[in-house]
Amino acid sequence: MKHVLLYTSLLMFFFCTSGKGQNGPNSIVRTIKQDKKGNIWIASWEGVFRYNEKSFTNITSKESSARFFSVLEDRKGNFWFASIGSGVYYYDGKSFKNFTTKDGLANDRVTNIYEDKTGNIWFGTESGASFYDGKSFQNFKMKEGAVHATDSVHGSIYQKPIPEDHWFHNDVNAIIEDKTGKLWFGTRGYAFVYDGKTFTTITNKDGKPFANVRSIIKDKKGNIWLGGYDGLWRYDGSTFTNFTQRFVGYIYEDKKGNIWTSSDNSNDSSRAWALSRYDEKSLSDKKPMATEITNKAMIFGILEANDGSIWFGAFDGVHRYDGKTITDFKAEKGQK
Fold first, then answer.
1. Average pLDDT over the chain, rounded to whole?
2. 273: number of CA atoms within 13 Å, CB side?
3. How open is the CA angle 87-202-235, to the nearest 5 degrees?
4. Which residue of 50, 258, 268, 301 lies most exposed, with the fewest beta carbons within 10 A?
5. Which domains does the chain have, with CATH numbers?
6. How far is CA 249 from CA 200, 254, 311, in A?
7. Which of 232, 135, 219 shows the shortest CA–CA distance to 179?
């Protein structure tokens, strides 16, 4: 009987993870965006997928086998895909162009893409930020003295001050431009603000630098939100406010001004992450409360689609929340 159960389990595992007959990716999804035409783009470890409300198409399957972390549609309607190990890909809807360190990119391990107000493209890499003006790359390091080193336990470094010469300071997770034109950079080391000349370490209300910042956004009011090892923080231009001390991996603002987060909700017996929503009306309360929508092994990118549904990436693919139920696209058919 045990052998029968084991065989059945293996069959279930195969059909749940096989690419055949599945709709969306079956593995880690890092970023989800919606383009001007309403298509949803998903950066995953199996490639970049496009969803047209009927089916999913793996856009990069014939171009690259790299793991993808981020996707951006620029103001001209072209797409940029960030990969781990293969640099960045430019896609005009017909053909690809690959940019790597040979072209001037700071590092071929790229996790974040951002377009500034003037239309220049920024890439967050493991060796600093790369700025692309359409012709050439210019690279920036947050800490010029930072060196590449390896820690036996990455988590332990955050229990003490991060050395000023540590390579984590140049491993860029997030980039955002604030309303004054300054650029904010979240790294695995500290977070920095760049005024066009100097990188300055960002510190909270207690004077401590923000460590391992994974996500930075600017909301509709111009406030800056930071999420990472030190929890969730909002900066209104003069004051930092803390919303939770749980590790926050991703921040997103929906059309109503609600703030969505993916945060570490684990304890000694669980590795769960929570998808949570802070209602806009409660953001000014002394103790704003988050509504927990679901728990998953890990939760990454978040998107509100045009129809109001919330999409989120996880360790096991892409999911959609319609306000009542959560759809797991791996269980459906139609992938091209």
1. 88
2. 21
3. 100
4. 268
5. 30-331 (2.130.10.10)
6. 23, 17, 15
7. 219
Question: How many angstroms separate the CA atoms of 241 and 239, rounded?
Answer: 6
Go through the chain and tell me how many residues it has. 336
Q: Are 32 and 301 in contact (CB under 8 A)?
A: yes
> How confident is the model at residue 62, as a pLDDT?
95
Return the number of other C-beta atoms located less than 10 Å from residue 268's C-beta: 4
pLDDT in tens, 196-206: 999 999 998 88
Q: How far apart are CA 172 and CA 191, in angstroms?
A: 9
CA–CA gap between residue 64 and residue 86 (Å, rounded): 8
What is d(CA 213, CA 253) in angstroms, rounded to the nearest whole number? 17
pLDDT at residue 155, as a whole number: 44
Residue 163 binned pLDDT confidence (cut-offs 50, 70, 90) = confident
Matching residue, tokens 């965006």: 33
How far apart, in whole angstroms, are the C-alpha atoms of residue 274 and residue 125?
Answer: 27
Q: Are 313 and 31 in contact (CB under 8 A)?
A: yes
State the amino acid at position 293 in one-letter form. Answer: I
Q: Does 149 score more than 90 pLDDT?
A: no
What the block records as the tokens of 265 is 């909700």
